């Protein structure tokens, strides 16, 4: 890790945000010998209730990239299946081993996942990480982004020049705000409250969607021995929920999933044990400007349905690394033109659109309360459950494919490109 005062004044790639997208991209670029600086505003990697479930496609990708041994060494939980149950009646069951990819999703805390990426990156001398360092603004020249201004621990200010600034700073991206690129923010009809409970012995490695009219719970086994539970609530009604009191909240959970009644009674002792998430999507016509690109949640915030946010972030980093390496290997010291990223953006937009389209459809179905629509939903779920093709149909959403560059698969065999700082170009 670099001290703030030791940060280079110039780099090839400045990544703002050390979440899954920024940390993995930094690692993949450093493997290729590219000079890269990652700045993360938090002092540590701790974060509660964030993307702990990694979709099968990304589990597969991370193993291809050589992260399997580090994941195994930390430990994780494999999830076998997810079952939708309405008022005690099983509607739909998906077993992940039966999808064409035949890889199980895993649950691992986000700090551990990011720590694995950063530890691997720090083996490479061209990688610089500054924790406790916040992006404050962009520097520009002739309409192109040339770098960023930063604030370090204790409030010290500095700036870094870069051929490209990558905004990987999440759903409330400041880089996005400062870039002037317009984001279409669409609030979903409902928000989410999350909490964790100890996982009872014998629960197994299965996830559940527990439905009752327009209310539902997502119940996921979580590493090492928890259940992670998401409860939908009407938009901006956290205040009303709290006003009705904790006992009413607990009774609502217990009616959706009676198996949780004793656990919530014992372990949810105050609202502090829960975490609120405002659900919205952010969609952008442009993800890039000359000298700047947004990735991960900064470019395409999605909803928690099917746990796809980390998957999209990982696939963004994997698809972008070879594009950046190719562009930087051509030399020069000018900001990378926005057109560099046209192919990348088109490819990633297809994946993101498939995911958000399905999420909207699913959220719409789960928010129904008219008896006729509830009947249609029930029939739809049950029909899908009977279809032998259900795994192929949903595979496009759960396991969207992407090309992997062989250089990234051969961990530790990077293709070196000239570095701005070493003055090789
Ligand atoms: C409650 C909750 C549950 C979720 N569950 C799942 C799940 O199970 N599976 C899943 O796939 N997805 C889940 N998601 C979504 C998932 O967490 C995100 O999609 C994913 O983390 C996006 O990765 P990212 O790297 O783009 O952004 P983030 O993970 O948000 O990382 C952005 C980073 O940028 C840093 N940053 C922000 N501003 C600045 C600044 N000015 N300067 C420097 N650094 C800055 C932040 O501190 C953060 O570390 C969940 C999200 C939430 C909120």
Question: Within the CATH hierarchy, at the fold level, what is the topology of the largest domain?
Answer: FAD/NAD(P)-binding domain
Oligomer: single chain
Outline the low-pLDDT stretches. Answer: 411-425
DSSP, total strands: 20
Shape: globular
Keywords: Monooxygenase, Oxidoreductase
Organism: Dactylosporangium aurantiacum
Protein name: FAD-dependent monooxygenase
Pfam family, one: FAD_binding_3
Structural summary, described in words:
The protein is of the alpha+beta class and 425 residues long. The chain has helices at 20-31, 56-64, 68-74, 110-121, 174-179, 238-244, 246-256, 261-267, 309-329, 342-366, 371-386, 390-398, 406-409; strands at 10-16, 36-40, 53-54, 77-78, 81-86, 89-95, 106-107, 127-131, 134-141, 144-151, 157-167, 183-187, 190-198, 206-212, 215-222, 226-234, 274-277, 280-284, 288-289, 292-294. Strands 1, 2, 8, 9, 10, 11, 19 and 20 form an eight-stranded mixed beta sheet that branches. Strands 6-5-14-15-16-13-17 form a seven-stranded mixed beta sheet. Strand 15 (215-222) and strand 16 (226-234) form a beta hairpin. The longest helix is centred in the C-terminal third of the chain and has 25 residues, at 342-366. The radius of gyration is 22 Å and the shape is globular. The structure holds flavin-adenine dinucleotide. Residues 16-22, 39-42, 49-53, 134-135, 168-171, 174, 194, 277, 296-297, 304, 307-311, 313 line the site of flavin-adenine dinucleotide. InterPro entries: FAD-bd, FAD/NAD-bd_sf, PheA/TfdB_FAD_monoxygenase. One of its GO terms (molecular function) is monooxygenase activity. It comes from Dactylosporangium aurantiacum.
């Amino acid at each position: 890790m670099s001290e703030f005062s030791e940060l280079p004044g110039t780099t090839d790639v400045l990544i703002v945000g050390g979440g899954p997208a920024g940390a993995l991209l930094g690692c993949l670029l450093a493997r290729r010998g590219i000079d890269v600086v990652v700045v993360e505003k938090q002092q540590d990697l701790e974060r509660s209730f964030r993307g702990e479930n990694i979709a099968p496609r990304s589990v597969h990708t991370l193993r291809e990239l050589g992260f399997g041994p580090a994941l195994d060494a930390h430990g994780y939980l494999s999830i076998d299946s997810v079952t939708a149950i309405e008022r005690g009646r099983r509607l739909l069951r998906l077993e992940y081993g039966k999808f064409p990819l035949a890889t199980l999703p895993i649950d691992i805390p986000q700090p551990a996942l990011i720590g694995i990426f950063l530890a691997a990156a720090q083996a490479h001398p061209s990688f610089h990480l500054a924790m406790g360092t916040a992006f404050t603004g962009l520097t520009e020249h002739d309409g192109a982004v040339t770098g960023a201004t930063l604030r370090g621990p204790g409030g010290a200010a500095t700036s870094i020049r870069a051929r490209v600034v990558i905004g990987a700073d999440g759903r409330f991206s400041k880089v996005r705000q400062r870039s002037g690129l317009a984001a279409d923010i669409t609030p979903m009809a409902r928000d989410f409250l999350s909490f964790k409970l100890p996982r009872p012995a014998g629960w197994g490695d299965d996830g559940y969607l527990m439905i009752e009219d327009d209310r539902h719970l997502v119940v996921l086994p979580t590493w090492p021995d928890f259940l992670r539970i998401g409860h939908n609530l009407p938009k901006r009604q956290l205040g009303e929920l709290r006003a009705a009191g904790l006992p009413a909240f607990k009774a609502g959970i217990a009616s959706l999933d009676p198996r949780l009644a004793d656990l919530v009674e014992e372990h949810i002792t105050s609202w502090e044990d829960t975490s609120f998430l405002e659900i919205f999507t952010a969609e952008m016509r442009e993800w890039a400007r000359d000298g700047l690109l947004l990735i991960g949640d900064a470019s395409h915030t999605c909803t928690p349905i099917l746990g796809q946010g980390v998957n999209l972030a990982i696939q963004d980093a994997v698809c972008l690394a070879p594009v950046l390496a190719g562009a930087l290997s051509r030399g020069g010291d000018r900001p990378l033109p926005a057109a560099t990223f046209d192919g990348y953006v088109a490819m990633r937009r297809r994946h993101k659109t498939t995911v958000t389209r399905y999420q909207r459809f699913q959220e719409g179905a789960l928010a129904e309360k008219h008896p006729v629509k509830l009947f249609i939903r029930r029939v739809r779920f049950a029909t899908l459950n009977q279809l032998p093709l259900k795994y192929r149909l949903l595979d496009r959403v759960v396991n969207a494919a992407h090309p992997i560059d062989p250089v990234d698969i051969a961990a530790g065999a990077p293709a070196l490109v000239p570095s701005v700082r070493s003055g090789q170009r």
